Amino acid sequence: MSSTTSPKLADVEIMGLIFGAVDRAIENFQQMAAELDLTAPQARAIMFLGEAAPMRALAGHLSCDASNVTGIADRLESRGLVRRGEAGQDRRVKLLALTAQGVETRAKLEQRLLETSPFMVKLSDAERATLLDLLTRIAGRER
Amino acid sequence: MSSTTSPKLADVEIMGLIFGAVDRAIENFQQMAAELDLTAPQARAIMFLGEAAPMRALAGHLSCDASNVTGIADRLESRGLVRRGEAGQDRRVKLLALTAQGVETRAKLEQRLLETSPFMVKLSDAERATLLDLLTRIAGRER
DNA sequence: TATTGTTATACTCTATAACTATA
DNA sequence: TATAGTTATAGAGTATAACAATA
After folding, report:
1. Angle A9-35/A100-116 helices, nearest 10 degrees?
2. Can you give the pTM of this predicted structure?
3. Backbone angles phi, psi at B82, to 5 degrees
4. Which helix (H) or strand (E) element contains residue B20?
5. Which burial class, exposed, middle or buried, applies to B140 when counting CB atoms under 10 A from its CB (0-12, 13-18, 19+)?
6. Closest Cα in chain B to A117
7. Could you say which of B11, B127, B143 has the minimum Cβ distance to residue A120?
8. Angle, CA B142 vertex, CA A129 and CA B134 arms, to 5°
9. For each of chain A's 143 residues, which pLDDT tens digit applies?
10. Which member of A18, A120, A139 has the closest CB to residue B20?
11. Angstrom distance (rounded) from CA B36 to CA B30
């Protein structure tokens, strides 16, 4: 792949820039989370729970074993950000939902991310639209 | 910011896609690292040590406290991937360098990342060039 | 005095395995 | 039998604080 003139070196350079950008995005996310006294997994959980979801679904989103979600939910629940509710039919599943305080925290986090994420801040609207197009193919589960 | 017709909603959607893509990249990185029995921080250290560097510099790259690097270096050293050397003039600093096995591991990891990273795999050369342009501004420390 | 690397400590995240209560 | 959530356990990463050696 690539042209014959610049074979592998260019790819390595591109990858370096990619990981540089990804690192910056991660760092920014962790920093914004930390300002709300949240760890990265906790913040990801809060963002995911825009709509209530089973513990299992959160484990899937976090790409971690389901057993870990117990502790993460425990800590968020003890801080009053999340509540464990019944899911109706199937009495095995517990529906994780944000409390009023959780909703408030989520809104703050989202706002701060919009204000500070390098992807949002460092690009113009047009550039962001182009980026959006590229990211859609990357983020998609298809293919 | 943005046009008056689609103010905040579009930004939130874009951010969702950004984090989706970032999550995919992180997951892929962790998976490629795991195939070489490396944790993410260990793999990041290996990639960083293309050239020997002081422990302190690695801490900076990993965006963590210097005390953590002791343990990370310990584990890599006990596996024969890294070696602690003297830095010459300043006898306080220890220069962390890859061993021959470490160089080999680094090459394998780099190759696998080039082969599997969603950013590299899911985009055409032209798209990657466009992405490169955008990421250069995001990854840059300037501004 | 300041800096590099280390140690000690405590907390969080992580996977694995075994358990319970449902289904 | 299978699934959702929990518990127990062990390992790794993380920050903080205190330390030794060196600058």
Report:
1. 140
2. 0.91
3. -140, 155
4. helix B9-35
5. middle
6. B15
7. B11
8. 25
9. 444 444 455 789 889 988 999 999 999 999 999 999 999 999 999 999 999 999 999 999 999 999 999 999 999 999 999 999 999 899 999 999 999 999 999 999 999 999 999 989 988 888 988 998 898 877 665 54
10. A139
11. 10
Å between A87 CA and nearest CA of chain B? 26
Residue A42 near residue A72 (C-beta atoms within 8 A)? yes
- Protein CA A66 to sugar C1' D3 (Å): 12
Nearest residue in chain B measured CA to CA from A8: B114
The residue that leads in pLDDT, B93 or B4, is B93
For strand B82-86 and strand B94-98, is the pairing parallel, antiparallel, or unpaired? antiparallel
DSSP state of A142: -
Q: Label each residue of A9-50 as H, E or C.
A: HHHHHHHHHHHHHHHHHHHHHHHHHHHCCCCHHHHHHHHHCC
Which run of H or of E encompasses B16?
helix B9-35
How does pLDDT run across A1-41, given as a tens digit for each residue?
Answer: 444 444 455 789 889 988 999 999 999 999 999 999 999 99
DSSP B24-91: HHHHHHHHHHHHTT--HHHHHHHHHTTS-EEHHHHHHHHTS-HHHHHHHHHHHHHTTSEEEEE-SS-T
